[in-house]
Amino acid sequence: SDIYSFSMIMWELISGIPPFDNEAHDFQLSLDICKGKRPEIIKNIPQCYMDLMKK
Protein backbone atom coordinates (compact mmCIF):
# COMPACT_ATOMS: atom_id res chain seq x y z
CA SER A 1 0.00 0.00 0.00
CA ASP A 2 2.96 2.33 0.53
CA ILE A 3 4.04 1.79 -3.08
CA TYR A 4 0.49 2.48 -4.29
CA SER A 5 0.29 5.67 -2.23
CA PHE A 6 3.66 6.85 -3.50
CA SER A 7 2.74 6.10 -7.10
CA MET A 8 -0.51 8.09 -6.77
CA ILE A 9 1.47 11.05 -5.41
CA MET A 10 3.87 10.71 -8.37
CA TRP A 11 0.91 10.58 -10.75
CA GLU A 12 -0.55 13.77 -9.29
CA LEU A 13 2.79 15.59 -9.43
CA ILE A 14 3.34 14.60 -13.07
CA SER A 15 -0.22 15.22 -14.28
CA GLY A 16 -1.09 18.24 -12.15
CA ILE A 17 -4.46 16.76 -11.13
CA PRO A 18 -5.44 14.18 -8.51
CA PRO A 19 -5.96 10.59 -9.65
CA PHE A 20 -9.60 9.74 -10.40
CA ASP A 21 -10.46 13.45 -10.28
CA ASN A 22 -13.35 12.94 -12.70
CA GLU A 23 -14.98 10.20 -10.58
CA ALA A 24 -16.95 10.18 -7.35
CA HIS A 25 -14.73 9.28 -4.41
CA ASP A 26 -17.09 6.70 -2.99
CA PHE A 27 -17.22 3.09 -1.87
CA GLN A 28 -17.43 1.82 -5.46
CA LEU A 29 -14.20 3.59 -6.40
CA SER A 30 -12.53 2.04 -3.36
CA LEU A 31 -13.66 -1.42 -4.48
CA ASP A 32 -12.48 -0.79 -8.03
CA ILE A 33 -9.05 0.31 -6.77
CA CYS A 34 -8.81 -2.84 -4.63
CA LYS A 35 -9.58 -4.85 -7.78
CA GLY A 36 -6.68 -3.19 -9.59
CA LYS A 37 -8.12 -0.04 -11.14
CA ARG A 38 -5.42 2.54 -11.78
CA PRO A 39 -5.39 5.93 -13.51
CA GLU A 40 -4.14 5.96 -17.08
CA ILE A 41 -0.38 6.14 -17.40
CA ILE A 42 0.69 9.57 -18.56
CA LYS A 43 2.59 9.68 -21.85
CA ASN A 44 6.26 10.60 -22.02
CA ILE A 45 7.21 9.75 -18.45
CA PRO A 46 10.33 7.73 -17.63
CA GLN A 47 9.90 3.95 -17.85
CA CYS A 48 11.02 3.51 -14.23
CA TYR A 49 8.11 5.73 -13.13
CA MET A 50 5.68 3.68 -15.22
CA ASP A 51 6.96 0.46 -13.70
CA LEU A 52 6.54 1.80 -10.18
CA MET A 53 3.03 3.10 -10.85
CA LYS A 54 1.94 -0.30 -12.19
CA LYS A 55 2.75 -2.03 -8.89
TrEMBL record:
Domain of life, source organism: Eukaryota
Domain Protein kinase residue range list: 1-55
PROSITE patterns: PROTEIN_KINASE_DOM
GO molecular function: ATP binding; protein kinase activity
InterPro entries assigned to the protein according to its UniProt record, in alphabetical order: Kinase-like_dom_sf (IPR011009), Prot_kinase_dom (IPR000719), Ser-Thr/Tyr_kinase_cat_dom (IPR001245)
Any Pfam family: PK_Tyr_Ser-Thr
Identification of the protein by name: 14311_t:CDS:1
Organism: Funneliformis geosporum
